[in-house]
Write a structure and sequence with these properties.
The protein is α/β, with parallel strands linked by helices. It folds into four domains: about 160 residues, PAS domain (Beta-Lactamase, 2-Layer Sandwich), CATH 3.30.450; about 40 residues; about 250 residues, Glycogen Phosphorylase B (Rossmann fold, 3-Layer(aba) Sandwich); about 200 residues, Rossmann fold (3-Layer(aba) Sandwich), CATH 3.40.50. Helix content is about 50%, strand content about 15%. It contains 20 helices and 23 strands. The strands form four sheets. It has a ten-stranded mixed β-sheet with strand order 10-11-9-6-12-13-14-17-16-15, sandwiched between helices. Strands 20-19-18-21-22-23 form a six-stranded parallel β-sheet, sandwiched between helices. It has a five-stranded antiparallel β-sheet with strand order 2-1-5-4-3, covered by helices on one side. The protein is rod-shaped. It binds 6-O-phosphono-beta-D-fructofuranose.
Length: about 750
């Protein structure tokens, strides 16, 4: 503090002292000289005027030879304030008349007076006087003598002193103003440079920024590219090292949380809860919902502990929580807390069924179902997002938790949490596709949705294609700065990293002995009343119009038409978990699915044989796993799907390296699982051919394909999915710390400048 004020004094006083010296040795003498010239010139003119005014009366009185009247004339004249004395000398240089004040030392002679520029200034013991001589002529031009006028110059001294005072004061003020200006300019230009640097690091593009939304400030431009490139190289390099050096397991994920995020608390927010308590005739029972989201996030939560906040939708949910609406799960081996949030029927209708599932769901999936947007649903959506955001704040024990926001139900929540907990790390994962900007533009609240999502630190999608769509959508509808090379968006001074994190499953632990494949094949066929060597296709989905179930059945029908030898020998078992069944669209869809299955079964079935077995009911994970192991082919024909974890679950279940996956090209999974038989589900003949090829594929080819896909899914498991997001979050936290260091450094620099 003391050295700061010394620095301040030095920086302020030095320029003032310099200006002062300049004043004393150059400016003031120059001003003195100048004012003296002006006054002397003034007095010269004045003297001439007075002399000519005296000429006539003096001549007259001299002609009258009246010394008395001359004396009176002279005395009257010297009553003028500035005229000090008057005298008249004849042409022989004899002093004839003078006032009493006339200094005798002046005499009549010009010799001896200083011949300077101001030769009229004569120094006397009592001070300088101004002396002028004016010849007096008589008629005919004969010279008679000269009038000597002596002016008092003390007023010049007085005025010079005043002028000096004003000049000094003026310069002092100027010096102070200049010093202050210098400090201010230094302050603001340094601040500008630092702000611009910060912009480069943070990627700020507030609408009020001086420069264009995609450009850094011009003065920082040469540095900006280098800085960004450096940061990007660093993050890519670190990411590559992290990715390749880790075999992702639950333990690694725990270590990551401990090391990279300093054991930060993790909060998950989703609509669907991982465990649903149901009141049944047998008492309270726990169900696992059919949900890719739950399949992926649940093992991560087991590894990380923390709190999962979700809608308590089960009939037995209220009965199983404590007074804070919390319950420890998994029920068998509790390792994290499930915090339930209650919604009224109206809220559930507006938020979940209405805005999320009649609006956003069809908007984001290209499945040719028109989205429906209602203002009342939107109001519920906003209110429920706020309720969940408040719950996050309530459950957080620190001011900087890691919040994992799941899916399209909570597009507004990231910004709401950000406002309440500015230091939180918010990782939002969008589990469904993101459409192109035109399609998204249909949503009447598109800006609000985008702004809400941009409250996230990291926003994740399954594929780079969805990331690209999102960046383009933001570009179209918001004033934000988008850095396409590094996939970041800066909006309202806050940075969001947009990345693709392909979701996955937890690879089954080898020690959890799987039931034998041969036993599964046999047992399942027996349960389904099928012969031992019956070819079995399997579909496992929620009963949703995006899953391509109709097209799958049509492909089965087409295959049986094309290859009649398979009639009686092949059955597709379709597991369809009831979903969103209070919505008309879903009820209609179920009716269409049922009626198509019935029609095909009537056409190709006989006796007990049916080509399509449709089971519209919930199956638990264990039952589904047995079916995966029993099937010859798993058919995934989604018309549009963010990832589709059924494809990955099937692969993980097949430790016998057998079985074939038929996979829609419109799933995120198709971008990773190249050894699947990839189909366009809208092309029924193509799907039918692929199904036939799968059922007749040689074992060796099955093994090769399955081995390759298994090794990919094993490495690219759900711990890697979560780990990569958390690592990126840790990196961003670090980057923010660097930025805030730059901030505090900039503040310190500013203090030094002033
Ligand atoms: O695919 C989107 C998604 O939310 C998944 O994450 C989840 O598996 C599925 O929908 C379940 O939907 P709901 O929660 O409506 O039953």
């Amino acid at each position: 503090m003391q050295s700061g004020s010394l620095r301040l004094s030095f920086r302020f006083i030095l320029p003032v002292a310099l200006v002062w010296a300049l004043l004393a040795y150059a400016v003031v003498p120059w001003v003195d000289n100048l004012t003296l010239r002006w006054f002397v010139r003034d007095l010269d003119t004045r003297s001439q005027m007075m002399a000519s005014a005296l000429q006539d009366p003096l001549q007259e009185y001299m002609a009258q030879k009246s010394p008395r009247r001359i004396a009176e004339l002279f005395d009257r004249t010297v009553q003028d304030q500035r005229l000090f004395a008057l005298a008249f000398c004849d042409d022989n240089g004899k002093l004839l008349y003078k006032t009493r004040t006339y200094p005798l030392t002046l005499g009549c002679m010009a010799e001896g007076r200083p011949q300077t520029l101001h030769q009229s200034m004569v120094p006397l013991p009592q001070g300088s006087v101004h002396v002028t001589e004016s010849p007096l002529r008589v008629e005919g031009g004969n010279y008679e003598g000269k009038l000597i006028l002596v002016h008092d110059t003390s007023f010049i001294e007085r005025r010079s002193a005043d002028a000096r005072k004003y000049v000094l004061a003026l310069f002092a003020v100027l010096a102070a103003v200049m010093a202050l200006l210098t400090i201010l300019i230094a302050h603001f230009s340094l601040r500008g440079v630092l702000d611009a640097l910060k912009d480069v690091l943070v990627g700020d593009a507030r609408p009020q920024a001086r420069h264009g939304p995609h450009e850094p400030a011009p003065d920082i431009q040469p540095l900006a590219g280098d800085l960004r490139a450096l940061l990007y190289e660093y993050s890519v390099d670190k990411r590559a090292r992290d990715d390749s050096s880790r075999q992702w397991t639950p333990e690694k994920l725990r270590v990551l949380l401990r090391e990279e995020l300093a054991g930060d608390e993790v909060l998950v927010v989703s609509n669907r809860e991982p465990y649903i308590h149901m009141q049944t005739a047998k008492g309270l029972q726990v169900h696992r919902p059919a949900s890719g989201l739950v399949t992926a996030v649940e093992p991560v939560m087991r590894a990380c502990s923390g709190t999962w906040i979700a809608h308590g939708s089960g009939s037995g949910d209220r009965a199983s929580v404590d007074r804070n609406d919390r319950v420890k799960v998994p029920p068998a081996r509790p390792s994290y807390t499930l915090r339930r949030v209650w919604l009224s029927k109206e809220e559930e209708q507006g938020f979940y069924y209405g805005f999320a599932n009649e609006g956003l769901w069809p908007l984001c999936h290209i499945a040719h179902v028109r989205p429906v947007f209602r203002s009342a649903d939107w109001e519920h959506y906003v209110a429920v997002n706020q309720r969940f955001a408040d719950t996050v704040v309530q459950e957080a024990h620190t001011d900087d938790p890691v919040v994992l926001v799941q899916d399209y139900h909570f597009a507004l929540l990231p910004r709401m949490v950000r406002e309440a907990l500015p230091k939180a790390t918010i990782i939002t994962f969008w589990h469904i596709p993101w459409p192109n900007p035109e399609s998204f533009g249909i949503c009447p609240w598109r800006e609000e949705i985008l702004e809400g999502l941009l409250g996230s630190t990291i926003l994740g999608f399954h594929t780079s294609f969805h990331c690209k769509n999102f960046l383009e959508t933001v570009d179209r509808y918001l004033e934000a700065r988008i850095e396409h090379e590094v996939s970041t968006i800066s909006y309202g001074g806050k940075l969001t990293q947009v990345e693709n994190y392909p979701i996955s499953i937890a690879w089954p632990e080898p020690e959890h002995g799987q039931p034998d494949v041969a036993d599964c094949r046999l047992a399942v066929r027996r349960e389904l009343a099928l012969p031992e060597n019956h070819l079995l296709g399997l579909g496992v989905d929620r009963l949703d119009y995006t899953k391509g179930i109709i097209e799958r059945f049509q492909a089965v029908e087409r295959m049986l038409e094309q290859y009649p030898a398979l009639v009686g020998k092949f059955t597709l078992l379709q597991i369809a978990a009831p979903s969103r069944s209070s919505l008309d669209e879903y009820q209609n869809f179920e009716a269409r699915v049922r009626s198509l299955a019935q029609r095909i079964n009537q056409r190709f079935g006989s006796g007990v044989y049916v080509p399509i077995m449709l089971k519209v009911e919930h199956h638990d994970a264990e039952q589904v796993n047995r079916l995966y192991r029993a099937a010859d082919v798993c058919v995934v024909t989604s018309l549009h799907d963010g990832m589709n974890l059924v494809a990955k679950e099937f692969i993980a279940a097949r430790d016998d390296e057998r079985g074939v996956l038929v996979l829609s090209q419109f799933t995120g999974a198709a971008r990773e699982l190249h050894e699947a038989l990839v189909v366009n589900p809208y092309h029924i003949e193509q799907s039918a051919e692929a199904l036939y090829r799968a059922l007749t594929m040689p074992e060796i080819e099955q093994r090769e394909r399955m081995r390759s896909m298994r090794s990919l899914v094993k490495d690219f498991n759900v711990y890697r999915w979560a780990g990569r997001m958390l690592l990126d979050a840790a990196r961003l936290r670090q980057r923010e710390r660097i930025t805030s260091k730059i901030h505090s450094h900039s503040r310190a620099s500013l203090r030094r400048v002033v």
